[in-house]
Amino acid sequence: MPEVLTAPLVVEFPFTRSLGPVQSAFLTGLRERTVLGVTASDGRVVVPPTEYDPVTAEEIRDLVEVGTSGTVTTWAWNPSPRRGQPLATPFAWVLVRLDGAGTALLHALDAPGPDAVRTGMRVRVRWAPERTGAITDIACFEPDDGPAGDGRPVPHSGAFDDPVTQITLPARLDYTYAPGRAQSRYLQALAEHRIVGERCPSCDKVYVPPRGACPTCGVATGTQVEVGPRGTVTTFCIVNIKAKNLDIEVPYVYAHIALDGADLALHARIGGIPYDRVRMGLRVEPVWTEDSRFPDHYRPTGEPDAGYDSYKELI
Amino acid sequence: MRDVAVVAFGQSDHARDSAETSEVEMLMPVLHDVLEQTGLAARDIGFTCSGSSDYLAGRAFSFTMALDGVGAWPPISESHVEMDGAWALYEAWVKLLTGEAETALVYSYGKSSPGSVRDVLTRQLDPYYAAPLWPDAVALAALQAQALIDAGLTDPQELAGIAARSRAAAATHPHAQLRGEVPMGETLVAPLRTGDCPPIGDGAAAVVLAAGDTARRLTDRPAWIRGLDHRIEAHALGVRDLTDSPSTRLAAERAGAFERPLDTAELHAPFTSQEVVLRRALRLDAPDSTVCVNPSGGALAANPVMATGLIRLGEAAARIQRGASDRALAHATSGPCLQHNLVAVLEGE
């Protein structure tokens, strides 16, 4: 078993989402230290509010203001906060039914320890010092020793100056990518400036880069076959738009290249020749730059062009 | 309506980390296993349906790579659900009921090892009100567990008993990841301890379905799907009664689970506390009940996310196929705190 290759892979995306009228009112309200709910068809006040009745799916729009104190309906003690969670010190996750609400809101409760938390305890909102119109405008909840409010929701227009109509929600997940057996072998060979495909035991085709399975036969490709390094351009395109963070002058050519001995064309950039001189049948070879684990690009070998029949099955 | 049966089931060994194999390399032996059991070749299969998640893989359209393991040329009839494979089986079942196919290959796989599955699962939450707080999957299950304890429906001792029973049942299971005597361990998110939570791991599963006489031809004892239904509840946790699972109960009712006694139930309960909810919803706690719950060890013994639900269907079917059960219930779940639930009733002849 060769060494298992791994590499860090970060998937990060700042989702920008538009808000409907109800979500907009709720999140703008948080910015203004006001908690809004919406009255459902059964008379229950839903907090945080939804645009559709959770039971009947009817559109609901009747906004009401509820209290900023409430009662814990269930909780869980989190001794090891994780990235992105509301508090960096141990805290309780809580569902809180705010005074006047019929449903509970998920958030964090800042408490000294699990012994200080119980279902039924009274808590109040701790507002974030800087608020933008997001659920995190509630920094967390904190224990509340004050008297319970009267619990009557008050009708609210939902109108605020400068309403929040969209929010950007950063999301980041960290992975350790492992390419598996076939691709690890391929990458390890590339580091030695060799290109290795794998042959299907059933149809005899050589796949490069190999992924461990023959997509035609659905069987494992186990036998390694060195292919190339020279190959033939089977088809190509001219790229005229510069990609972000890509240090290549446009226009340039991106091509499918059938390496000698391979039954599948791989794709790579063509260099060392003006973009408008690249053609089908052009014979090319990889160019490795120092310390690179893969060819930087392919360049013409100077050989006569390959005949169409020699690569027509690989286009 | 046509009769449709599970005629073959296979699964990988479930492991904490399968970095040495890619998804398709992990999946392929399982696909070959179920095809061999039936004597079918990939080209004989009428419909193929799979379940997996890009968020587990950290890559877009990751299922298209796994499709290489099926042999998708010449072109096959194929579909994919970004869900547990149990829902892929549901789609395949419908396809067979309509008469558009005679056989179906259903598979699913998940590798939790590349990422942090507790965090990955936050991405299925409501993006406006819940996801920005990053409440991980264990935290949400712990809220449900505390609600059950507060309601007097369970206690930490009972939860530990469920964990012990599940892993003891898996002691002889050749594919299980966590088996035998497993300590309850430290508190992860109170009231849940490590032992109340599923192992994190990688794995794959596959099932072959067939209709009517084709099923009889392919196996000695088909596991007939007598009913299959799935129901979903409101997403927001604070809207639901976390101590109950009305969607499971309704799906079971529609699948015919309560019409006659069952002998086996394979429940998709990654957390001990969720088994308590499901047993109540499915009325498995009657004093005279003889239903054997999770003889495979369930999700507490192996939890390859996206395949765990399909495995429940497969385990129930396999038990029927080998004559250990005559009428089994299989359950799969999706979403936070048992939001979405699927129930199948399987019978031998």
Automatic annotation (TrEMBL), chain A:
UniProt organism field: Streptomyces angustmyceticus
Residues annotated as domain ChsH2 rubredoxin-like zinc ribbon: 188-219
Keywords of this entry: DNA-binding
Chain segments carrying region Disordered: 295-315
Xref: SUPFAM superfamilies: Nucleic acid-binding proteins
Protein name: DNA-binding protein
Record keyword Transmembrane present: no
Domain named ChsH2 C-terminal OB-fold: residues: 64-127, 225-288
GO molecular function: DNA binding
Classification lineage: Bacteria, Bacillati, Actinomycetota, Actinomycetes, Kitasatosporales
TrEMBL record, chain B:
Matches recorded under InterPro entries: Thiolase-like
Protein name (Swiss-Prot/TrEMBL): Lipid-transfer protein
PANTHER family: ACETYL-COA C-ACETYLTRANSFERASE, NON-SPECIFIC LIPID-TRANSFER PROTEIN-LIKE 2
Single GO term (MF): acyltransferase activity, transferring groups other than amino-acyl groups
